[in-house]
Every structure is written in C-alpha cells, then in structure tokens.
Amino acid sequence: MPAHIDELTDDYDVIVIGGALSGAAAATLLLRKNPGIRVLIVEKSETFGRRVGEATVEVSGYFLGRVLGLTQYLNESHLAKQGLRFWFANDKVMSLDQASEIGPRYLARLPSYQVDRGILDEEVLSRAETAGATVLRPAIVSNIQLVAGGLQTLEVKQGDVKRGLSARWIVDASGHIALLARKHGWWTPNTDHLTASAWSRWKDVKDWDGRELMEKYPDWAAAQYGTRGTATNHIIGDGWWSWWIPLKGGDVSVGVVYDTRIVDFPQDGGNIGERLKSFLTRHPVARELLENAHYVPDDLHHRKSLSYYSKTFAGDGFALAGDAAAFIDPFYSPGMDWISFTVSRAADTITRQRAGEPTVFLTESHNRDLTLCHTRWFDALYRNKYQYLGEFDLMNLAFQLDLSLYYWGVVEPVFSLGEQAYLAPPFSPPSGRIFAALMRTYNRRFAKIGSRRRRMNMLGRMNDRQRVLIPGFTLKREEIWKLLPLLGAWLKLELTEGWHTWGGDRIAGAATGSGKDDA
Predict the structure, then answer these.
(1) How far is it, in rounded angstroms, from Cα 261 to Cα 239?
(2) Top-level class of domain 58-115+191-303
(3) pLDDT for 170-191, tens place per residue?
C-alpha cells in the first residue's frame, strides 16, 4: 500500500518524481543493483488513466519482458503485437482492398506487445513497491532545489500536508511535464519538427481479420498469412499518419499525427472525436474500419506540439528519464525504446557513483551519449520525413532500410548482450556515426524527392493496388547483406527521379510553413 506523507523519513538515497513506467522501472533497476538503497517514488495521480505509447517494438519488448521480468504478465494481460503495417491511398482507391499495403506476411519472430498503459504502469509501480520502494500517491512535488554533489531538496504535498525531503539523487520521470528541464531552462521545443496529434479510444472498430472483411474482400484476406489486426496499423496520407492499436478487451487506440506545415487539422466541426473521425474517414481504409465505430467521450485528446528535448540529461545529483528527457515522434513506436535506454542509463550512473566512480566523468559521458543519441535519432529517421510519408514507394524503401538497420544495429545487440546493451543507446559512440550518416542521407534524399512530387502535383502515383508483404528478419549478422538490393533500389530511384533534386532542391514547407493540404 502507498505510504502516507506522515510515514516518510526526511531523507532518501533517491527520490523518483513520477510513478508510471519510466519512474517505476528506474526504481526497480536501482533496487536491484543497490541492495538496501532507500528509494521514494512520488506520483501525482491516485490511479493511472490511459495514455499513449501503447505499442512496444522489439527493444522495449525485451526490456519489459526480460529486464523487468513481465513476460508472463504481458502475455496474460495484454496483446502480442504482430509488427508494423502501413496503408496508402490515392484518388483511384475506392475500397480497403485497393489500398497499397506494406507489412509482414507472417507472424512476428521476436516478442513485442500492444499494452494498455494505465494497467501496465500500475503493474510496474506495484512491483517496484514490492521490491522495496516507498510509494507516495497522490502527491505533488514542488520547490525542487538541485545542489551539485550535495543533497537535493524538494517539497511534497499530500492533501493539506506539506513536507520537505532530501535525497542524494533525484530522477525526473514526470513525463511531458518535464519538471526539471522546464524549471532550469533546458527544455527546448524542436522547431525543426512541427508535429501535432489528436487521439482517442474507439469501440466497435471493424476487425481486420474478421469474417465480415474476409467475405467482402476475399483476395485481400487471402494474401496475408498472419494477422493484420494485432499489428500497429498505420493509415497514411500526405503529411500525416494515424495509428490503430488494439487493446485487450476490444477497444482500439486511434490517433493522428500531422506536420502542421503540410496539414491543416479541422478546427471546426464538433469535439476532437468528431473532428478526428471526419479527418480520418477521408481515407478509404479508415472509412471502412470506422463505419460503425464510436469514440469514448471522456477519452479525447489533442496536443498541438509534440517534439521537444532537454539540453541536459544528467548532473551530479539528478537524471532525466523517458519523456521528461525528450520526445521525438511516435512513428515506429520508439517511445518505450527511449524509456528503456534513459532509465537504464540513469540507474547505471547513480549505481556507479554510489560505488565510488567520479561523478564528473559519469555525467559527462551520460550527457554526451544521450545528446548524440537524440540528435542522430531525429536526423536519421524523422527530419522532414513527413515530406514523403504518404508515398508508398518511398516509404516502402525507407521502411525496409530503417527496419534492417534497426534489427542488425539495435535489436541484435540487445539479444546478444542482454541488459548491458541498454547502456549504449542507438547512434551513440563509438559506432553510431556511420549508421546515423547512412540513414540521415537516404532520409534527406527521399524527403527532397517527396517535396518535389508535391510541388509537381505528382503525389501518390503508386498508392493504389500495390502490396509488399515482407517475410521477416532474423538476427543473423550475415543477413546484413540483404541491405545490398535495398541500396540498389535507392540508386535506381536516384537515377530515374532523384537526379531532379541533386542541385540543392529545396524542401517545400519545411521551413516556411507553406505547402499545406487538408489531408
């Protein structure tokens, strides 16, 4: 049971601000690595509600299952995920089966999950408490004072009672509230990535693998050997994409993310749920799925600015974890990967300082590695990606290149090295530069080609009646040679179309806010 404020001691070794996944996982790792450590978790909510970030991928799936030990729980209480799937349309697409599709043909080889975050967060917090953490909830944190090398102090308030506390370390896992980053001026909006989002949960969304759609589109159904519905499905348009994530019990999380420089999301026409449905049903695949669906009225959300980062990730006495450190973009579901890396690094930095290692060295390498990771991650995958996101052929090539490098550069080390791999986040030294440069280069080139197509009114030419069903990847290192035909396809694209942009062709709308479209 959570503690009452009167039951607290005056000082702790670590105070964790935020008890959801990032904070509870950080506490769990600290307790495991430091027997006898005194950890307090302060959580503002009495119970967790639903939140976005419901899809894991292979790296975060390993972290949840094997590092936190949740595999049995995840299989019992959530859904096994079957990869990523993408749907495209143009003016020729009148029905779901005519839309172009990218995705796996078979079931997934490696575990990942579709999770109801409120339920998952409660479980991880409960396990952290069982492991020895003191949990104070609901309670509000204020007046945080950082003292390098000394005791960090803050005030907690529960009901009408306020109390001062101290700790050698504070872990900020406060999510997008980002208490420390905002308080100290480290919080920085990513003005190179102007994205926004609207989302809700829906009931009675059609079953991708159900009898109704199978009878209506038999050839479409027969083309897929695994299941479509338990994938993270992405229905995509020019400058926007939507996620469709099934949850245990039948609800579906549906949200749209859009580049505000390209897309005008409806500002009129009812509440967020009504506007979200109006926007999505312009796409024939979404129109089919939402035909009889309705949104949950008290579960409507709209965030006008998504991407930000902290200029500082750690110091002598504090560390930031998860969304309190940065948020880039939900495309490809990287959020829990980022949690896995930042939580692991925070716990390791604190553990090593407690063992007597020089704090200056630890925090310098912590900041260097996570800063490089974040910068290269954004440049390699997301900078101007919305310029070509809605193009089937460009996204097909980008996705297979991205997935190949993710499997052999990020996933394979996790399964080979285990928990230790989370201490070296993607794109960090020493080997991250080469892969980041390759990914940054082809992403930049595809963005320029997509931008040119928009200006030339050439968007979506291959968005109908194309289907790429990928047999899947393994973790065998020799399979990296599968990159060669993908690189060959990129070369062919450059010689047939890309050469038009070799002269420094500008990216429309990326800096000026021009080039908007409704959908």
Answers:
(1) 8
(2) alpha beta
(3) 999 999 999 999 999 999 999 9
